[in-house]
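Input (Bifunctional protein PyrR):
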Amino acid sequence: MSDNTSPAAADTTKPRIREKGRLMSASEIDRTLVRLAHQIVEKHEGSGNLGLIGIKRRGVPLAKRIAKIIEGIEKQPVETGVLDISFYRDDLSTAGPKPTVQAGDIGFDIAGRDIVLMDDVLYTGRTIRAALDALFDHGRPRSVRLLVLIDRGHRELPIEAQFVGRVVPTSSKEIIEVKLNEVDGTDGVLLVELAD
Ligand SMILES: O=P(O)(O)OC[C@H]1O[C@H](OP(=O)(O)OP(=O)(O)O)[C@H](O)[C@@H]1O
Ligand SMILES: O=c1cc[nH]c(=O)[nH]1
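Output:
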């Protein structure tokens, strides 16, 4: 007799994952973002021409937090924007029409600006390639640099981040789970593994 209420029956649609360890605590994320903010200011010799763009989802709170830290350092506002690149991923069908993204979607005019794209994890690089496509549909920035909280390797494209929270060598069975308060209700970075 089958028992549909058993845990095994209930979990068949979810990938089985095993937590292997906590890579960063909330306070380690905070300290890392302070360091990255200082590195951005140093590299750009201030923040006057900066624009920070978070890639949905977790790049958005990262951009807002770093903007706040830079504003504290430089005592002037830093513009932030949002990029939702889901329609630009090259792993989606190319048969459909390419959507037109309105300039207002990012939140500010990127022309001539020094842009720092922000995301939580850099893996194959395909999200960032798609983000660059989307970004240049909005205008021509003076420069574009990339910040990620975690670089886990396994790149499939020639894309590198200039500002990196932590490099974490991983196997292809492992997954980095970044959790941020604004999205997940808690802050932390976990290393998990897909169970066989
Ligand atoms: O370098 P890549 O191989 O492209 O992988 C990195 C991307 O994967 C994750 O996003 P995901 O697609 O899981 O969406 P989410 O941010 O909404 O969780 C992560 O937030 C990065 O954006
Ligand atoms: O390990 C990974 C790979 C891609 N995106 C993530 O969030 N984690």
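The pocket of uracil (ligand 2) is lined by residues 121, 123, 152, 175-176 (CB under 6 Å).
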